[in-house]
Design brief:
mainly beta, Immunoglobulin-like, six-stranded antiparallel beta sheet
């Protein structure tokens, strides 16, 4: 006999920004994020929207490889591979816009694995015009008609509003007297289904926008039919068939072939139908009863016609139709125990009771006196050729020998003398009974000057008052000698003090010279200099001229104050400046008259050139100008 199966959602409406799905799942809006908190894995979801979520995507749906389709009015998400979003909390989707409010989403359907539906909250509006239409587009008590009729009943009334008045089609109460659909299902079924071979037929009072059902593996493919004609995408996996349109199209109400199924398909292998109308409205569905007078026989009442039933009766424990459980009994006589006799004829044995020394049952092989399976007794001779003598070669290859001496090591069955490390090499690893000495070249700053077993030693480092007379090498140590320090404190250096007492000097630093430069009879005379050191002050006399000023030259560049008397010139810096060592014009004197026959430089009573330390340089004066008197 065929049974009716109907599927309906029981929805509860609450005025908040959270969408509560029974005790299993809570949906909330946070900006553009549709968040979830679920104690059950999520296998699929669908909801309608007012256009605010047309670019929805991402979130944990994308992270778990869900296919998400967002049209101008519907969002649907599911996995083509049967994957799920694990129970817990997170962001289900990014709606792509923050325009979605608490009244933007409606007709929400969420399914767990195996197509089991969550109860969910549905947010919908009443458009306010109060019009009741026979297309069941009206909203009653905050729920769509299918939900209201299923949850409350068509006769439910509050303040004069009756469910059947707002939902005439669902409740078979259209004002124009339109009769309910004459189908072989009960009146509360929107989509009545039947099988004709591989054709899944439908008779629906509502447009169909999507469908899904589970199967036990009997369906290998689904194609064609009115689903294909409406542009649906139909996918058949190992346990689920799902169909929907990426463009939002629907299969018009009426009857026909929904889709053509491949495989060994019966009503009994298909379960948990979910059908939705436009805008995600859930539709009730179920198998219809046959109105054919020649309905099939079902002798074992398993819901499968006897002419296509694999077994009219029952399967025994051996999976044999109407069997006696004997065909799958083990060697212990118990059905499906799986026990068999081993090669030795022992039930559930391991074949060891009759195995030879090679582990093969009934081979007949045994170990020889040497313990070798099927051997000839020759493998246990000693090194002296006597069986089981127990004698063996020592590490040097000598039968029953003592092994290597103290100065030997054994390798590959022979003994060799232990090697010493030559000069330039040091011991790295000592020899053992089975390995020779390991020597390594002495690294930098170490040496070895003997052929022995010693490691390299550090070379001598000469002290600060010594120098390396003979350089060290990898085979000899360094030889140091005492230093003789020069005036620059350099070991064995060549620097000496010059006549001025300067170490390594050229003897010029303590000398200075002044001389007469360019003379202009109209009133100027250059004083030239050549200083071996920086000069901080100078004084000299000039004869034969009435000097009245001095300026420029190196003294001026150094910021000196140059004062003149009638014959004396004095230059000094009050800021600590100096005229650098070198030569050039020291200053240019101005004069008002020629007072003598010639002009020469002299030291006068206190003439000198001195350094910043107050040391007077050894000064030489030169030059003479002869004046012609008219």
């Amino acid at each position: 006999m065929t049974f009716l199966r109907s599927f309906a959602l029981s929805l509860t409406f609450i005025l908040s920004s959270s969408l509560l799905l029974s005790s299993n799942i809570t949906l909330t809006l946070d900006g553009s994020s549709l968040n979830y908190d679920s104690d059950t894995d999520i296998a699929g979801f669908q909801f309608s929207h007012d256009g605010c979520a047309s670019s929805a995507g991402g979130g944990d749906a994308a992270a778990n490889a869900f296919m998400v389709s967002a049209s101008s009015g519907v969002v649907i998400g599911f996995s083509m591979t049967g994957g799920v979003i694990p129970a817990g909390t997170g962001t289900l989707l990014d709606l792509g816009s923050e325009d979605c409010g608490e009244n933007s989403l409606s007709s929400i359907v969420v399914t767990a694995p195996a197509g089991v539906e969550f109860e969910t909250i549905n947010f919908v509006f009443d458009d306010g015009d109060g019009e009741v239409v026979c297309e069941d587009e009206a909203v009653v008590f905050g729920m769509n008609c299918g939900t209201a009729a299923s949850a409350l009943g068509c006769d439910f009334e509050v303040s004069g509003t009756v469910v059947s008045d707002s939902c005439p089609v669902t409740c078979d109460a259209c004002p124009d007297g339109e009769p309910a659909n004459e189908v072989s299902c009960s009146d509360d079924i929107d989509v009545c289904l039947s099988l004709d071979g591989g054709n899944l037929n439908y008779d629906s009072s509502q447009d169909i926008a999507g469908f899904q059902w589970n199967h036990d593996g009997c369906i290998s493919g689904a194609s064609g039919g009115d689903a294909a004609g409406a542009g649906f995408t139909v996918s058949a996996s190992s346990g689920v068939v799902i169909g929907f349109s990426f463009t939002g199209s629907a299969i018009a109400s009426g009857s026909g072939v929904l889709t053509e199924l491949s495989g060994d398909v019966t009503e009994g292998c298909i379960s948990q139908f979910v059908f939705t109308g436009p805008a995600g409205v859930p539709l009730t569905s179920g198998w219809g009863t046959s109105d054919d007078d020649s309905a099939c026989d079902d002798a074992d009442s398993d819901g499968v016609c006897d002419d296509v039933d694999d077994c009219v009766g029952s399967l025994d424990e051996c999976n044999v139709c109407n069997g006696d459980n004997s065909t799958c009994a083990g060697c212990d006589g118990v059905a499906n125990s799986g026990l068999v006799n081993d090669a030795c004829g022992v039930c559930d044995g391991d074949g060891s009771t009759c195995a030879g020394c090679d582990g093969v049952a009934n081979s007949g092989l045994v170990n020889d006196a040497c313990g070798v399976c099927d051997g000839d007794g020759s493998t246990c001779e000693g090194c002296d050729g006597v069986a089981n003598s127990g004698l063996v070669n020592d590490a040097c290859g000598v039968c029953d020998g003592p092994g290597p001496a103290a100065d030997q090591y054994a390798s590959d069955g022979a003994c060799y003398p232990v090697s010493t490390c030559p000069a330039g090499y040091g011991l790295s690893v000592e020899a053992t009974a089975t390995s020779d000495t390991v020597c390594s070249a002495c690294p930098e700053f170490t040496y070895s000057d003997t052929d022995d077993f010693s490691p390299c030693v550090e070379t001598t480092i000469c002290s600060s008052d010594e120098y390396e007379l003979v350089a060290a090498s990898s085979t000899s140590d360094a030889v140091c000698a005492s230093c003789v320090f020069d005036c620059a404190d350099v070991c064995n250096g060549s620097a000496v003090e010059d006549d001025c007492g300067v170490c390594g000097g050229d003897g010029s630093s303590c000398f200075a010279s002044l001389s007469l430069g360019a003379f202009d009879a109209s009133g100027s005379l250059e004083i030239l200099y050549d200083f071996g050191s920086d000069v901080a002050g100078f004084q000299f006399d000039v004869g034969g001229l009435a000097i009245d000023g001095a300026s420029g030259g190196a003294a001026g560049e150094a910021g000196f104050t140059v004062s003149v008397g009638s014959t004396t010139v004095l230059g000094v810096s009050f800021t600590g400046g100096t005229v650098p060592a070198g030569s050039g014009v020291l200053t240019t004197l101005s004069f008002s008259a020629v007072t003598g026959d010639s002009t020469e430089l002299s030291l006068g009573n206190s003439g000198a050139v001195s350094t910043a330390a107050g040391d007077a340089l050894e000064l030489s004066l030169s030059g003479s100008i002869v004046h012609t008197q008219d």
